[in-house]
Amino acid sequence: MPNKDYIELGFAKYDLKREKIKGFPEVILALGKSNKQLTEIISKAIKRTKKLLVTKTTAEQYEAIRKAFAGTKIKSKYFETAKLVYIGDLAGKKIGKIAVVCAGTADVPVAEEAGLCAEAFGSRVERLYDVGVAGIHRLLDNVDVFKGCNTVIVVAGMDGALPSVVGGLISVPLIAVPTSVGYGSSFKGLAALLTMLNSCAVGLSVVNIDNGFGAAYQAHLINKLAVGNK
Amino acid sequence: MPNKDYIELGFAKYDLKREKIKGFPEVILALGKSNKQLTEIISKAIKRTKKLLVTKTTAEQYEAIRKAFAGTKIKSKYFETAKLVYIGDLAGKKIGKIAVVCAGTADVPVAEEAGLCAEAFGSRVERLYDVGVAGIHRLLDNVDVFKGCNTVIVVAGMDGALPSVVGGLISVPLIAVPTSVGYGSSFKGLAALLTMLNSCAVGLSVVNIDNGFGAAYQAHLINKLAVGNK
Amino acid sequence: MPNKDYIELGFAKYDLKREKIKGFPEVILALGKSNKQLTEIISKAIKRTKKLLVTKTTAEQYEAIRKAFAGTKIKSKYFETAKLVYIGDLAGKKIGKIAVVCAGTADVPVAEEAGLCAEAFGSRVERLYDVGVAGIHRLLDNVDVFKGCNTVIVVAGMDGALPSVVGGLISVPLIAVPTSVGYGSSFKGLAALLTMLNSCAVGLSVVNIDNGFGAAYQAHLINKLAVGNK
Amino acid sequence: MPNKDYIELGFAKYDLKREKIKGFPEVILALGKSNKQLTEIISKAIKRTKKLLVTKTTAEQYEAIRKAFAGTKIKSKYFETAKLVYIGDLAGKKIGKIAVVCAGTADVPVAEEAGLCAEAFGSRVERLYDVGVAGIHRLLDNVDVFKGCNTVIVVAGMDGALPSVVGGLISVPLIAVPTSVGYGSSFKGLAALLTMLNSCAVGLSVVNIDNGFGAAYQAHLINKLAVGNK
Amino acid sequence: MPNKDYIELGFAKYDLKREKIKGFPEVILALGKSNKQLTEIISKAIKRTKKLLVTKTTAEQYEAIRKAFAGTKIKSKYFETAKLVYIGDLAGKKIGKIAVVCAGTADVPVAEEAGLCAEAFGSRVERLYDVGVAGIHRLLDNVDVFKGCNTVIVVAGMDGALPSVVGGLISVPLIAVPTSVGYGSSFKGLAALLTMLNSCAVGLSVVNIDNGFGAAYQAHLINKLAVGNK
Amino acid sequence: MPNKDYIELGFAKYDLKREKIKGFPEVILALGKSNKQLTEIISKAIKRTKKLLVTKTTAEQYEAIRKAFAGTKIKSKYFETAKLVYIGDLAGKKIGKIAVVCAGTADVPVAEEAGLCAEAFGSRVERLYDVGVAGIHRLLDNVDVFKGCNTVIVVAGMDGALPSVVGGLISVPLIAVPTSVGYGSSFKGLAALLTMLNSCAVGLSVVNIDNGFGAAYQAHLINKLAVGNK
Amino acid sequence: MPNKDYIELGFAKYDLKREKIKGFPEVILALGKSNKQLTEIISKAIKRTKKLLVTKTTAEQYEAIRKAFAGTKIKSKYFETAKLVYIGDLAGKKIGKIAVVCAGTADVPVAEEAGLCAEAFGSRVERLYDVGVAGIHRLLDNVDVFKGCNTVIVVAGMDGALPSVVGGLISVPLIAVPTSVGYGSSFKGLAALLTMLNSCAVGLSVVNIDNGFGAAYQAHLINKLAVGNK
Amino acid sequence: MPNKDYIELGFAKYDLKREKIKGFPEVILALGKSNKQLTEIISKAIKRTKKLLVTKTTAEQYEAIRKAFAGTKIKSKYFETAKLVYIGDLAGKKIGKIAVVCAGTADVPVAEEAGLCAEAFGSRVERLYDVGVAGIHRLLDNVDVFKGCNTVIVVAGMDGALPSVVGGLISVPLIAVPTSVGYGSSFKGLAALLTMLNSCAVGLSVVNIDNGFGAAYQAHLINKLAVGNK
C-alpha cells in the first residue's frame, strides 16, 4: 500500500490528503502528545511535505523537537508567546490581507497564534492589539487597519464584546475567537464564547475558545478565495 | 402589637419598615402570587402607604386588581409592556436624571420596567432605545442623552455588549440589566448576564436577568444621593 | 437631522448604514417584537430600501404583516418552514455557489432559513438534505454538490457530527449551524454546538444554535468575495 | 499623532482618556500579563499620570515591578493580601464614606482589594469583617459602621447571603461582591454569585466573582456623586 | 406468594414494607402517573393501609381520584395550594413540634406541602410565613415560633438566604427546602439550592427543590425521635 | 441511479443500507417531522421494507398516519404509552431473552418504548416494573427475571440508582436508560444520566435520556450475538 | 464592651454565642485562612472555650498550629486522613449512636471527617466502610450496624447511589454526603450530589460535597434530641 | 464468618462475589487510594484470586506496588500510557474479537486502557488508531478491522464524532468512550460525551469520560456471549 494517503505510525496516521484538499499540510496539535510521538510524527511527515506547523506546543515540547533535529537539515522556529512551531520553509509569498485584532494585552498569545498561523498559510496579516470596547476611541482611531482586508479575526476574552462592534464597521467576514482570559464568572472563556455566539453583528462566525489556529485557517481560506487563488 | 413594622396577613407580612429605610413602600412582586393574595395585600397595604408598585404583573392579574378596586378610591394604572401596575399617587416631582438605554426593540419591556419604576420612585428619566453596538453610530449619534445624568441603566439581551461600550463613554455609575431576549445559546439571558459580569468597563454593576425594577431601585438611590436628597 | 443613518421610531432605530456597509438592508428579527412594532418598522423601512427580510416570524406575525400591507404595493411572501418573510424585490440575479447541507429531516427548517436567506442576499444555493453521518454513504454518494462551491453551510442537531466529516472533504470555508433538534441530553442544541466548536476539521466556524440566517450572511459574504463582487 | 488619547505600546494601548472621563487613570490588571509587559506599561504610563493601580498582582509579578523601578523616583507599595500595587502618589485627601463589609476571614483578600482600591480612588473607607449571617448578632452589634455611608460594599463567598441581610438595613446603594471562597457545590463562587443576583433586598447590584476592584470603582463613583465632587 | 411485602399491579409495586420500617404507608407521587394508574394504586393500597398521602397532584388528577371514589367509604381531601391529597384517616394525635418557616408568599405552596405532610405523619406544626431576610425584623420579631421545636423546616426561593439566618438562631436540626420561585438567574431554584448547600450555618441539611414532602418526612422522623416515640 | 442505497425524498433520504447492515429497516424518529413528511416517508419506505417502526410519535401524529393509510394494505398499531408505531409485519419469532426493568411507574413509558422496540426487532422480552432501590426487597424478590437473559435494560429517572444495584447482580451486559422523570434538581434527567455514567457497577453502558429505543437496539444486537444469529 | 458575644480579631470575629445556642464552640474552617490567622484565632478562642475543632486543615497548616502551641498547655491532635484537628479536651462521654457508612475506600477521608467530628461533639459512632451498591451483599451482610442508631450518615462519591438503598432499610433520619471522588462526568461530586437530592428514599437530607463536618453536626443534633439531652 | 463473600480490611471490603458473578476478580481503581491501602488490598486479594487488574494507577503508585512485592512470587507489569497494572497471571487464551478504534493520538492512553483491560479479561483485541472523521479516508481505508468483531470500542475526545460514523458501518454493538482530550469548550470531555449520547447511529451505548476500563468490561461481556462461553 505505498500510495496510501497517510503515513502510518501506529499511534498516528499523518494525513497526506489534507494538503491535497486544503492546500496546506496537516497541522500537528502538540497538546496531549508525548515528546517521542511529536518528534516521530515530524520526522516522518517532513519527508513528504516541505513545511509543518505545530500548535499548542509547550517550551518543554519544543526543546525536545529542537534537540531531535539539531544538526539536521530540518529547521524549526519557536514562537513562545503563541506556543507555535514553524518547521521547514514557511517564508513564501503572502497574499491578500487579514486583520487580526485583539481586545486586551492578555489576549495577545491567541492573537499571535492566529496571526502567525495565517502568515504560515500564506496570508498577509496586519495586527491591531488592545482595542477593547471599554475605551472605544482606541478602535475608532484605528479603523484604517480594516482597509483592503478580505477578512478580520477578532480575539477577545472577558466580556468578548469586541467582535460585535467590529462586525458593525466592516463589510467582510469576521471570525471571532473567544479566549480563556478572565476570572470568576468568565468560566475560562465560556462568557466570551456565549457573547460571540449571540452577537447582533452579521457576517460573524465563531471558533473554539483559544483557537487562534482555527480562526487563521478559516480566514486564510476566505482570503485565498477573495484573491482568486483557487 | 399594634405598632409592628409589618402588616400581618398570614401568607404575607407586608413590610412597613422598608419605606422608613429606603424612602419608598415595599414593592409587590406579582410573580407567583394568586389574584386573591395580590388584592388582599394591596388593599391592606394601601391604607398605610399612599402609593404602591406591583411588578411582573400579567394582564390577567391586573384585571383581578382592577376589578377588586373598581368603584373605590384606589386608582391603578397598568403598563402592559412593562407588566407594571401603579397604584395611588405616583405623580410626584421628579429629581435629577437617569438615562435608560436599551440595545434592541425586544429589550424595551425590561427597559420600560426600569424607566417607569424609576419615575415612580421620583427620578427624572430619559430614554434611548435600540442602540445596539452592531450599528454603533446609533449610540454615538445620541451621546447627549448622558449629559447631566447621575446614573445610567443599560438594558441588553443577546450578546449583552452594550454596557461595555456605554461604560467607556460616561463618568457616572452604570447599572447593567441582562434580558432573556435571544435564542439558542443565549440560554434565556445567561449569555448577556455573563458578558456584563465580565465587562472591561469600570463603574458598572449588574442585576438579575430581566430585573428592570432592581436596576431602577439602585439607580434611583444613586440619583437621590447625587441630588442631595439624603 | 434628516440625513441620519437610521430611521427613528422610538422603540427602534432602523439602521440604514448597514446596507451601505454590508450591501443588504438591515434584516428584521421578528422574535420578541409585537405585531404593531413589526408592521411599523417594515412600513418605514421599505420606503428607504427596496427589499426586506424578516426572520423567526411566526405564522401569526406574518398574518399581521400580510394584513397590514394588503392592497398596497408592498409585496410579501412567507416561507412557513423557514419562518421567513421576503418583502419587496428579492428576485435578483444569483452569484457564485453555496451548498446547504443538513443532517436530518428535522433540521430542514434551519437549513431552509439558511438557503432562502442566502438566495435573498443574492447567492446561488444548492441543497443536500438528510445526509447524517450514521449512514455516511448518503453523503459520499452526493459529494458532487460541493463542486464549484465557494462555501458550504452544514446544519445539524443531535450529535452535530456532520460538519466534522464534510469539513474533511472540501477545500472551501464551512459554516456550521447547530440546531435545537434532539431530546434529553441534546439540551436544546448545546450538544451539537459543542461538537461543532470542538471539531477536528479545519476551515470551519460556528454560528448560534438555529441561526440559519447568520450562517447565510457569513456564507454570502464569502461567496461574494470569491466571485469578486467586492 | 502626538495627541492621541492612548499610549501605543504595540501589545497594549494604555488609555489616557479614561482618566479624563472617570477621574482616575486606567487601572492595570496584572492577570495574564508578562513581567516585561507590566513594567513597560507602567514605565510609559506613569510619565503621563501621577498615580497607578495594579490589580491581581502575584508576589512574583510585584518583585519584577519593584526591581524594575528600584533606584528611580517611581515609588511602589505592595499589599500582599489584596494582591494590589500602589504606584506613585495615592495618598490624597479622602472624601465621603464607604463601608466594606465581609462575611468570613477567607473573604478578607477580596474585601481588602475593594477597600484599598476605594482609598486609592480617594474615598474614605470603614471596614467590618467576619460578620456572616450564621451568627447574625455580630452584624447587628456593628450597624454603626453604616452611619454616614454613601454606599456599602458587601463581600461574601460560600452561601453569599450577607448582602441580602445588609441590604435590608441600609438606605444607600449596596455593591455585592461574590468570592470564590468555598468548596464543593460553591463551584468557585457561582453559588454566591447566584445568591446575590437573586437577592430579595433592593438597592443592590453585583460585580464579578472576586472583583473587589470593580466594586470599589462603582462605590467610589457613587460616593463622589453623593459628596458633590462632580 | 400471598405474603409479599408489596402489592403487585404490573406497572407498580406498592411497597407495604415501608410502613413497617418508617411508620407511615408509602406516599404516592402523582407526578408522571396517569389518572388510571393513580386510582388503581389508591384503591388497592387503601385496603391494606388506613391512610394515604398523594403529593404533587394536579387539580385534574384529584378530580379523577374524587370521582373514582365518590360514593365509597374512601374519603379524600384536596389541598390545592399544596397539591396534596389526604386519603383516609389522617386526623390522629399530633406529637412534638415542628416549625415551618418560609421566605416569601410565593413559597407558601411548598411550605404548605411540608406543613400538611408533617401533620399527616403525626407531628404538630407551627407556621411562620413571609419572613425573608431582606426585612429581617419580621423574622426577629417572631423567634418565639422556634420555642419548643424539635426541628425547623425553612422554605425559600430566589436567594435562598433564610436558612442561613435561621440556622444561627436555633439549637435544633434545620431542614432547608429551596423552591423554584424566582426568575432569570434563579434558574428554577438552582440558585436557592446552591445557597443552602453552601450555608455557613451548622445543623442544616437540604432536600430537593420544591420537595416540601421530603423535608416533612425528615423533620417528622427527627421530631418522633425527640418525643421518644421510637 | 435506481440502485441507490436510499430513497430520495428531497427533505429526507430513507436509508436502505441500514437494514442490510443492522438487520432491521431504518427506524423513523417522528420528533420534529411534519405529518406530511411522516406519511410520505412511510409510504415510500414500506414498499421497500416489510416493516417499519416510528418512535416518539404523538397521538396527533399517529392519527395522521392512521388516516393516510386507512383502507390500504398497510397496517399500523399505536402504543400510546410508549409513543410507538408498528407498521407492517412485526409479529415474527422472538429469540433469546432481554429483561426490561424500571424503577418507578412514571418510568414505564420509556421502559415500554424499550420493550416494544426490542420485541419489534425480534427479541423475547420480560418486564419487571417499579422496583426502585428505596424499597430494595421488591427487586431482590424478583431476581428470577434475570435468569437466562442475554442482556438487561434498566430504566430509571430521579436518582437513577437502580442500574448500579442490578449491575451487581447479573453476569450479562446492562444497558442503562436515564429518564426525564423527576422535578427540581433532576434537571429533566441530567441527575439520572450522571448517576448512571458514574456507576460503580461493571458491564454497564448508557444511552441518552428517555432513549428506550436506543437501549432496545443495543440490547437486541447483544441478544442476537448471544443466540448466535449472526 | 467586655461582654460581647464574640472575640474581636479584626480579620475575624470568633463567635462565642454559637456554643450557647448549639452546645459546641464555633468550629474553625482552616480553608482559606493563613497560618497566622489560624494560630491567632485558636490562641484567643481556646481561652474562652475548653475545646476546639479545626476542619479542612492541611498538614502544613497543622504543622504551624503544632509549632505555635508547642510547650504550652494547649494540646492538639491531627487526623491526617480527615484533615481534622482536635484541640483541648474532646474526650468526654459519648451518647447515643450514629452509624457512618461509606461506599468506597476513596470516600474514607470524608467519612472519617464525619465520624471524628461526631465523636468530638459527643456522639458514639459506629463505622461501616466500602459497602457500595454494586456489590450489595457487603451492605446487606452488615445491616446490624444500624441497630440502635438514632441517625445514619451515608458518604458516597461517583454515582452516589448508596443513600437511596440505605434509606430504604432504616427507620431513622439519614444524612447523605456526596464526595468529590470520581472522574470525568462525576464533575467533582456534582453527579453524586444530584443523585442524593433526587433520591427516592424518604427521611433523607443532603449536605455539601465533601462536607463530612456538616453531616456530623446535623447527625449529632438529632442524636442528642433522641437521647433526650436537650 | 470465614465464608464471607468479601475480604474485610476495615477501609475496604474486597468483593469476592464479583468474580463468581462476572467471571473476573474485582478490579481495583487506584484513584483516591493511598499506597498503603493499595498494597494491602492487593496482598490480601491476590491470595484468593490468581490475577488482578489495577486501573488509573500513577507511576508513583505503581512504584509502591512494585517495591511492596519485590522478591515475592507476585508478578506485576505496568503499562504507563494506560496507567494500568497487571498482577499475576493474565496471559490466558484470548477469545472472539473486539476492535478498539480511536480518533486521535491523544486518545491513545484511554484506548490502550480499553485494549489492555479487554485482553486481561480474555478477549482478543485489534487496534486502529488516529482515524478521526476529519480525514475520513483513514477510517474507510481500514474497515477490515471490523471483520469478525463481536463488538467495537470507539474512543474519541474533542468533537467525539467518530462513534457516529463507525456505528453506521458495523452490525455489532458499539461502546463509545468520550475522552477529556481537547481544550476550551471541550470542557474536559463534556462535549465528546454529549456528542456520543446524542449520536444518530444505532447500536451504540456510552461509558464515562476516560473510562476505557468500563468500555472494555462491557465489550468483553458481549464478546463472551457471542463466543458462547457462557
Net shape of chain A: globular
Quantity of strands of chain A, as a count: 11
Oligomer category: homooctamer
Q: Largest interface here, residues on each chain?
A: A-C, 35 and 35 residues
Give the helix/strand class of chain A.
Answer: alpha/beta
Task: Summarize the SSE layout with pairings.
8 copies of one chain form a homooctamer.
Chain A: E1 6-8, E2 13-15, H1 17-22, E3 28-29, H2 35-45, E4 51-55, H3 59-69, E5 76-79, E6 84-88, E7 95-102, H4 108-121, E8 123-128, H5 137-140, E9 151-156, H6 162-167, E10 174-178, H7 190-197, E11 204-206, H8 212-227
Parallel strand pairs in A: 3-4, 7-8, 7-9, 9-10, 10-11
Antiparallel strand pairs in A: 1-2, 4-6, 5-6
Helix pairs in contact in A: 2-3, 4-8
Describe this structure in words.
The structure is a homooctamer of 230-residue chains. Chain A has 230 residues and is α/β, with parallel strands linked by helices. Chain A has 8 helices and 11 strands. Chain A has helices at residues 17-22, 35-45, 59-69, 108-121, 137-140, 162-167, 190-197, 212-227; strands spanning 6-8, 13-15, 28-29, 51-55, 76-79, 84-88, 95-102, 123-128, 151-156, 174-178, 204-206. Chain A has a 5-stranded parallel sheet. In chain A, α2 (35-45) packs across α3 (59-69) and α4 packs parallel to α8. The longest helix of chain A is centred in the C-terminal third of the chain and has 16 residues, at 212-227. The radius of gyration of chain A is 18 Å and the shape is globular. The mean pLDDT of chain A is 96. Chains in contact: A-B, A-C, A-D, A-H, B-C, B-D, B-E, C-F, C-H, D-E, D-G, E-F, E-G, F-G, F-H, G-H. The interface between A and C is medium-sized, with 35 and 35 residues.
